[in-house]
């Protein structure tokens, strides 16, 4: 029976699986968008949301808890200074998964997992109209 055994094993031993999760969350917070398999992305969503919630808390114990999970001090400082500030009015759902392709080798479903505000900034930049008008080139006379 598998009562109260949540989460995917992903074909790995426990320590290897936790190392994978820590590495993926660190990369996601550093680059704000990564591509991985759908199963791995679904697993790291909760860890990423917890780390951003710790960043929003902003206390020293929260920073120490984040440092215990995230592999890089630079990423933790980015989390507490930059990323947490972007989500201060949001109550959850900090990540988005977008299906991208099937991996050629084994046909695994690949997704891009990204922080939500990253896409919002890109879409705002794309909707701003250009302020300059194109100037027509002078015609050459023969």
UniProtKB/TrEMBL annotation:
<comment type="subunit">
    <text>Part of the 50S ribosomal subunit. Contacts protein L32.</text>
</comment>
<comment type="similarity">
    <text>Belongs to the bacterial ribosomal protein bL17 family.</text>
</comment>
<dbReference type="InterPro" id="IPR000456">
    <property type="entry name" value="Ribosomal_bL17"/>
</dbReference>
<dbReference type="GO" id="GO:0003735">
    <property type="term" value="F:structural constituent of ribosome"/>
</dbReference>
<dbReference type="InterPro" id="IPR047859">
    <property type="entry name" value="Ribosomal_bL17_CS"/>
</dbReference>
<dbReference type="GO" id="GO:0006412">
    <property type="term" value="P:translation"/>
</dbReference>
<keyword id="KW-0687">Ribonucleoprotein</keyword>
<protein>
    <recommendedName>
        <fullName>Large ribosomal subunit protein bL17</fullName>
    </recommendedName>
</protein>
<keyword id="KW-0689">Ribosomal protein</keyword>
<dbReference type="InterPro" id="IPR036373">
    <property type="entry name" value="Ribosomal_bL17_sf"/>
</dbReference>
<dbReference type="Pfam" id="PF01196">
    <property type="entry name" value="Ribosomal_L17"/>
</dbReference>
<dbReference type="GO" id="GO:0022625">
    <property type="term" value="C:cytosolic large ribosomal subunit"/>
</dbReference>
